[in-house]
Write a structure and sequence with these properties.
This protein is α/β, with parallel strands linked by helices. 29% of the residues lie in helices and 22% in strands. The protein has helices at residues 7-10, 38-48, 71-76, 132-143, 160-168, 185-193, 202-214, and strands spanning 29-34, 57-61, 82-85, 90-91, 96-99, 105-111, 114-120, 147-151, 172-176, 198-200. A 7-stranded parallel β-sheet has the order 3-5-2-1-8-9-10, sandwiched between helices. Strands 4-7-6 form a 3-stranded antiparallel β-sheet. The protein is globular and about 35 Å long.
C-alpha cells in the first residue's frame, strides 16, 4: 500500500468544498467516532438502521494496534451493511461501512464528486491512531454541508476539534447523550466545544440518521 503524507496537509485550510449550488443535495457521508464502549454502541446503531439506508459510513474507533482483524466480520453478523476495514485509495460506495484499520489514521478526499479513502501512519493525535479528529477534519473538508458527524462513547476529548471543523463548514453534528454512554467524556467534550445539532440517546441515533438522510436539502 502507498500511504499519504502528513495528515495536516490533507485537512488544511485549502480543502475544497462541494459545489455550492448543487440542487436537492442530500447528506452523502456519515462519519462516526468512538472509543471505550464503542463496539457495543456501533453495533446498536448499525443493527437499527433501516434496510435500504444507502449513505456510506466511515468510522474511527480507537483500537489497539494489535486488535483483532475480525472486527468487520463481528459487525457484519448484526447488520445488512458490507462492513470492511478501509484500504488506501479505495473509493467510497453506498451501503458500505468503512472502519479505520488498527494503527492507521483514516482520511477522506473527494475527486470528481467521488469520495476516496486514504490511510496514514503519521504520528498519533491525542495519543490515538486512528484519530477521530483526523477523520472528521478531512471528511469536513471533502464533504462540507453534506457530512454528518456522530460522536459516541469515549474516555477522552478526541473528536471535539473535528466536530468544530464539521460545524464550521456547514455539516451536522450528532452526539450520544453522555448519560447513555459507557464513557461520557468524549460526547461531553464535543457538547462543551460546539453547538451540536442533536444530543440523542444511543437507541435514537439510528432512526434520526434514517430521517435526515431521507430529506433532500436544496442548496442555493
Amino acid at each position: 500500500m502507498k500511504w499519504v503524507g502528513s495528515w495536516q496537509l490533507a485537512v488544511g485550510s485549502g480543502g475544497s468544498l462541494p459545489t455550492a449550488n448543487r440542487q436537492l443535495s442530500t447528506h452523502e457521508l456519515v462519519a462516526i467516532g468512538c472509543s471505550l464502549g464503542g463496539m457495543h454502541a456501533l453495533q446498536i446503531i448499525l443493527s437499527h438502521l433501516p434496510k435500504g439506508f444507502c449513505v456510506p459510513i466511515v468510522v474511527a474507533q480507537h483500537r489497539h494496534k494489535n486488535s483483532n482483524e475480525g472486527l468487520p466480520a463481528y459487525f457484519r453478523r448484526s447488520t445488512q451493511f458490507n462492513v470492511v476495514d478501509a484500504e488506501d485509495k479505495q473509493w467510497i460506495k453506498p451501503s458500505h461501512v468503512y472502519l479505520a484499520p488498527a494503527d492507521y489514521h483514516l482520511l477522506i478526499e473527494r475527486t470528481d464528486d467521488r469520495g476516496e479513502l486514504h490511510l496514514s501512519c503519521d504520528e498519533a493525535v491525542r495519543h490515538s491512531r486512528p484519530s477521530i479528529d483526523v477523520l472528521f477534519e478531512s471528511a469536513a473538508d471533502a464533504y462540507g454541508p453534506q457530512l454528518i458527524g456522530v460522536v459516541l462513547t469515549g474516555s477522552n476529548e478526541d473528536g471535539a476539534r473535528g466536530a468544530r471543523r464539521i460545524k464550521d463548514l456547514g455539516g451536522m453534528v450528532i452526539v450520544q447523550d453522555p448519560l447513555t454512554a459507557e464513557a461520557p467524556e468524549m460526547p461531553s467534550a464535543v457538547i462543551a466545544t460546539v453547538k451540536v445539532d442533536r444530543v440523542l440517546p444511543l437507541e435514537g441515533i439510528a432512526s434520526y440518521l434514517a430521517d435526515v438522510c431521507r430529506t433532500a436539502v436544496a442548496r442555493t
